[in-house]
TrEMBL record:
Protein name: CSD domain-containing protein
Gene Ontology terms, MF aspect: nucleic acid binding
CSD domain mapped to chain residues: 29-46
InterPro entries: CSP_DNA-bd, NA-bd_OB-fold
Family matches, as Gene3D superfamilies: Nucleic acid-binding proteins
Organism: Micavibrio aeruginosavorus
PROSITE patterns membership: CSD_2 (PS51857)
Spans through the membrane: none
Length: 46
């Protein structure tokens, strides 16, 4: 899995790491502040 260099994501360790990332994504998406670009697929959302 490639290194995630998107700003605003804290790296967490342990079993709840992925859960906290999901919750963080949901919060950002709800606020409409996520700016993400996938280099391989060439799409993004704000």
């Amino acid at each position: 899995m490639p290194v995630d260099r998107r700003p605003g994501l804290e790296k967490t360790s342990g079993r709840d790491g992925s859960i906290s990332l999901v919750l963080k994504y949901q919060t950002y998406m709800a606020r409409g502040t996520v700016k993400w670009f996938n280099e391989k697929k060439g799409f993004g959302f704000i």
